[in-house]
């Protein structure tokens, strides 16, 4: 639909990998709506240093949205092997011999089974060293960050295309409402003039006929001030520009939101100017409310665009 992708702020990506030492990791990116770019990191202990580098990389791919960056690890540890502490055993034997000598006990030997049951004799050690493991994980995870961001943006672009198509349909319906309202404009002016003429007769009675032309001129001026042609012209211009921007694509969220605010203002003014006439034409009221409804639908969708 457009040369430059239109992206939603909603997206998800998850990539996995294996770092040196058989450590499995998963990098998850999740983005939702936000007024600005808001990054939230959930990293394993001791890996906070990579946040600064990753922030820079993410800003090159994502302009707006709340993005959660989550890195989880699963280490495959080797089977631990029991190790005894020789120093503790030697200390026990030495103490046994000293006690035997002090009490003149000959021929008594220390009990090895009892020594091996002493606290601190045994320890469980991992047979695999973990030196430099963290740096290896950081490098491996950094290698999948860019593909994860590209996957995230692929999903955001798909969502964006769907939103753009929906917005185009909404604006085309709005365009039809404006066109029909414009076709009713001449009748509105006539109705406004007749209404003012009637009020003048009710207020002035016979005096009205004394200076009828002058009073009708004033009535015509009042009717002109309540004319909605300027509002309809601005609405048509806003709609045309909105549709052109959708065709161009790119980062449109804030621009389109501002334009819809302007359309809301014009629609409200149109309704206020035709309020008294609407009592005589239900269709005018229906069109005014339909315009506001379509604009509100468009604003809800635009809130999701980057």
Q: If you had to describe this structure to a student in words, what would you say it looks like?
A:
With 306 residues, this protein is of the alpha+beta class. It folds into 3 domains: 11-77 and 132-156, 2-Layer Sandwich (Ribosomal Protein S5, domain 2); 81-125, no CATH class; 160-302, no CATH class. The chain is built from 9 helices and 6 strands. The chain has helices spanning 50-59, 86-102, 112-116, 133-183, 185-204, 212-225, 229-248, 253-273, 282-302; strands spanning 11-19, 23-32, 37-42, 65-75, 81-84, 122-125. It has a 4-stranded mixed beta sheet, with helices on one face. The protein has a two-stranded antiparallel ribbon with strand order 5-6. Helix 1 (50-59) packs parallel to helix 4 and helix 8 (253-273) runs antiparallel to helix 9. The radius of gyration is 39 Å and the shape is rod-shaped. The two termini are 17 Å apart. The relative contact order is 0.15. The mean pLDDT is 82.
List the helices and strands and how they pair.
Elements: E1 11-19, E2 23-32, E3 37-42, H1 50-59, E4 65-75, E5 81-84, H2 86-102, H3 112-116, E6 122-125, H4 133-183, H5 185-204, H6 212-225, H7 229-248, H8 253-273, H9 282-302
Parallel strand pairs: 3-4
Antiparallel strand pairs: 1-2, 2-4, 5-6
Q: How would you summarize what this structure contains?
A:
This protein has 306 residues and is of the alpha+beta class. The protein is built from nine helices and six strands; from the N terminus they run E-E-E-H-E-E-H-H-E-H-H-H-H-H-H.
């Amino acid at each position: 639909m457009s040369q430059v992708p239109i992206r939603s702020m909603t997206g998800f990506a998850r990539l996995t990998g294996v770092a040196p030492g058989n450590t499995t990791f998963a990098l998850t990116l999740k983005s939702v709506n936000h007024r600005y770019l808001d990054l939230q990191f959930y990293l394993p202990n001791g890996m906070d240093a990579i946040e600064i580098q990753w922030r820079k990389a993410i800003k090159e791919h994502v302009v707006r949205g709340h993005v959660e960056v989550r890195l989880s690890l699963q280490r495959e540890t080797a089977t631990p092997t029991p190790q005894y502490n020789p120093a503790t055993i030697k200390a026990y034997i030495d103490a046994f011999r000293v006690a035997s000598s002090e009490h003149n006990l000959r021929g008594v030997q220390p009990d090895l089974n009892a020594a091996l049951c002493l606290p601190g004799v045994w320890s469980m050690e991992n047979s695999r060293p973990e030196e430099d493991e963290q740096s290896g994980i950081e490098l491996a995870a950094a290698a999948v960050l860019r593909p994860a961001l590209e996957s995230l943006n692929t999903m955001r672009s798909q969502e964006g295309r769907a939103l753009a198509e929906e917005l185009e349909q909404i604006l085309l319906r709005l365009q039809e409402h404006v066109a029909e309202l414009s076709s009713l404009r001449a009748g509105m002016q006539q109705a406004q003039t007749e209404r003012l003429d009637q009020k003048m007769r009710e207020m002035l009675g016979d005096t009205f006929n004394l200076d009828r032309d002058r009073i009708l001129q004033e009535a015509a001026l009042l009717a002109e001030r309540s004319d909605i042609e300027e509002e309809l012209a601005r609405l048509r211009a806003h709609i045309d520009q909105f549709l052109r921007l959708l065709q161009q694509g790119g980062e449109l969220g804030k621009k389109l939101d501002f334009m819809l605010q302007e359309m809301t203002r014009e629609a409200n003014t149109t309704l206020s100017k035709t309020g008294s006439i609407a009592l005589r034409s239900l269709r005018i009221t229906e069109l005014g409310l339909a315009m506001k409804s379509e604009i509100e639908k468009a604003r809800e969708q635009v809130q999701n665009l980057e």
